[in-house]
Write a structure and sequence with these properties.
Elements lengths: L2 H28 L5 H8 L29
């Protein structure tokens, strides 16, 4: 059997089945019970070192105006 024909037959049958099972396995792994905490932590990781906005009652940094207003 020619090499190309063998690899083509393998890709059309067994490799396709392997890739489908791998896809289903990854999908089940993502939706497994108990993974919500890990996914929430990963989703919020980029915000971990952001500075939080100052509260309305802080007088330490008022900027240009004493009474800041919302932009609309």
């Amino acid at each position: 059997m020619e090499t190309y024909t063998f690899l083509r037959a393998f890709a059309d049958s067994w490799h396709l089945l392997f890739m489908f099972c791998f896809f289903i396995g990854v999908f089940v792994f993502i939706l497994r019970p108990g993974s919500k905490k890990v996914h929430d932590e990963s989703a919020n990781m980029i915000f971990r070192n952001d500075d939080k906005p100052e509260g309305a009652g802080s007088d330490s940094h008022q900027g240009r105006h004493a009474d800041p207003k919302e932009a609309r």
